[in-house]
């Protein structure tokens, strides 16, 4: 798992993406100007707080934000030279499921409850790869077998509700990998999978990556998955990236207080049972009413006065990480206990 | 916690108390049909003889491979999947086979947090209504106090109370999951069946929710059936753990014993596959990789259902179905007690 050189021409380059939603509480700034690139053959991890904008970011790239109430208010996303955000829906639909595939966080929203799994799986390959019905079916069964569905040749004729949560998730993974996309966006793809099958699926993704040079954006809360699969990691908080680092350094030398808090919240297998877990104190930020200055400040054990007025941007740290924080966490003292706002 | 559920009802009880939930030899088979007239051809044996008990104030963890029957077991306890065999006792009352109407009062005792948060939330109700609904149904709190209680619950699970009037689709995956948890808590049940309740949460919010569940257990004697694929979470929260494989429990033990000394080869493989959040360590780990054909829940097995993938299986494993044996620490394997 070595660091990739940043000189590869990126497959996808996202620049200043901003997405808003209109709600009763006001305008929700779900994604607030994020930028990143990913090269062929690379795996970029996106981790971050629940509700911080990870799914919305990727739905925006795929043109799947419901408008209204949502709106992509700014940004560019160059994919193989074309701007995904400026494309017509028809052009984007052609790319989706073919050159870019997405594994959605919620399997049931992307599987049609009224069609058998066979019908749904064959549709993609018939459409994008020009398979015949028979070829498509054989291929679909083979894919289901590879994701560990027993008796796939028979189960494929079942409906989604007859599958377990993890089996549905695997159906989606099989569908997404079917077309050998150039870019795979995986939004919490293994949340419903036990560790043995998860290991098998991650292995499969890595193999696809080795063979086809697939780029993978991996959104996950599972830091074990991040450690296993990702080359680089971006940490998201309140609609922004607050830290970017190669995977080893993110775990060994985190530089943003939120990343630190995240790593400290992990339950450890070697830990004693039934003692309390550490959670980051305070409540998640209100994206309709972000405070001035740093969005993490109200919960940050390192915060100083300046944090309330200055909004930090990503800057290079002494170890090469990029972090959006005014403070040097390696030398600054922690305030003993931050209060709930 | 500041709410005041009837303390007499939720008293902490010693470990030797009557079980709150007892599942005896539960079977759930789904018929598979084929042909023009839909003749029954066979059955998917989703749950095939599962037994366990949960006492007040106890957490029973249920782990196992995807598709092994965890959710179906959970749904059967709630009366949402038909038990085709065995018995389910809740608070001294037999509840399997109860009609929807008969089951309704029992929902005051047992609630469920569903694995798929989105499809279990009514898309036409605001969060506020979703969480208030159980209070109305069971006549909890004075009507004018319910809104306050809803706000309190939202805050407890880390949802911004300002989201009160939002609809489910306006939330992120992890936020929806917490709506499901708040709704279950709103009924003030004595047992919550949690099916992957924290799988969509980042580790910090996950820690917050787990701490909350554990506090409620200590303060109110709440009991849980806790299904999760994250084995460090399960270890952390559970008193006892059952490991399921292909519709059966193959090992059952106190949490610490199970992790310190897994006896069934499947449990051993499962524990060895846990990815650790440390790239350094992760690259040096040794795994027991399971190979061999994954068995189908449609087949009836003569021998041990795990034999086809077991790294240590012997010929006799193909002939005898091993029973769950042992006192505190039970394992269903013919080979466990041999060196
Ligand atoms: N349709 C919508 N209307 C209003 N707000 C929305 C809508 N969809 C998403 N949001 C808000 O946008 C924010 C970002 O949501 P997103 O789904 O991207 O979070 P996430 O990082 O994927 O979280 P999770 O890890 O829980 O899935 C959330 O706070 C959410 O409440
Ligand atoms: N309504 C149904 N009709 C037919 N088969 C079903 C039905 N519900 C579940 N099954 C099958 O029963 C088996 C067990 O499913 P269950 O949902 O209980 O698994 P699980 O252990 O919860 O898995 P996961 O971890 O993936 O959620 C699976 O093979 C599934 O396909
Ligand atoms: Mg999401
Ligand atoms: Mg399940």
| CATH fold naming of the domain at 17-109 and 189-331 in chain B | Rossmann fold
Taking strands numbered 1, 2, ... along the chain, how are they ordered across the largest sheet of chain A? 6-7-8-3-9-10-12-11
What is the topology, as strand order, of the major beta sheet of chain B? 6-7-8-3-9-10-11
* CATH-level-4 superfamily name of the domain at 17-109 and 189-331 in chain B: P-loop containing nucleotide triphosphate hydrolases
**In percent terms, what proportion of residues of chain A is strand?**
15-25%
Radius of gyration of chain A (CA) equals 21 Å
Please state the average pLDDT score of chain A: 89
CATH-level-2 architecture of the domain at 17-109 and 189-331 in chain B: 3-Layer(aba) Sandwich
The total of helices of chain B stands at 10
- Low-confidence sequence ranges of chain B: 1-14
SSE string of chain A: EEEHEEHEHHHHHEHEHEEHHEE
What is the element string of chain B, with H for helices and E for strands? Answer: EEEHEEHEHHHEHEHEEHHHE
The counted number of beta strands of chain B is: 11
Percentage of β-strand residues of chain B: 15-25%
Q: State the secondary-structure class of chain B.
A: alpha/beta
The CATH class name of the domain at 17-109 and 189-331 in chain B reads: Alpha Beta
Sheet/helix structural class of chain A:
alpha/beta
For this structure, the quaternary state is heterodimer
| Greatest contact between two chains | A-B, 75 and 76 residues
Say how many strands of chain A there are. 12
What is Rg of chain B?
A: 21 Å
Describe the structure.
The complex is a heterodimer of chains A (341) and B (339). Chain A is an alpha/beta fold. Chain A has 11 helices and 12 strands. Chain A has helices at 54-61, 89-95, 107-110, 117-129, 133-146, 152-155, 165-178, 195-212, 223-229, 247-252, 257-264; strands at 10-23, 26-39, 43-48, 70-79, 82-83, 100-103, 183-187, 215-219, 232-237, 240-246, 315-316, 322-323. Chain A has an 8-stranded mixed beta sheet, with helices on both faces. Chain A has a 4-stranded antiparallel beta sheet with strand order 2-1-4-5, covered by helices on one side. The two termini of chain A are 41 Å apart. Mean pLDDT of chain A is 89; it is low at 1-7 and 337-341. Chain B has 339 residues and is α/β, with parallel strands linked by helices. Chain B has helices at 70-77, 100-103, 127-137, 143-156, 173-186, 203-220, 231-237, 255-260, 265-272, 279-282; strands at residues 21-34, 39-54, 59-64, 85-90, 93-94, 110-113, 191-195, 223-227, 240-245, 248-254, 330-331. In chain B, helix 3 packs across helix 4 (143-156) and helix 4 (143-156) packs across helix 5. The longest helix of chain B has 18 residues, at 203-220. Chain B starts with 20 loop residues before the first strand and ends in an 8-residue tail after the last strand. The model of chain B is unreliable at 1-14 (pLDDT under 50). Chains A and B meet through helix 1, helix 3, helix 7, helix 8 and helix 9 of A and helix 1, helix 5, helix 6, helix 7 and helix 8 of B. The complex binds adenosine-5'-triphosphate (ATP) (2 copies) and magnesium ion (MG) (2 copies).
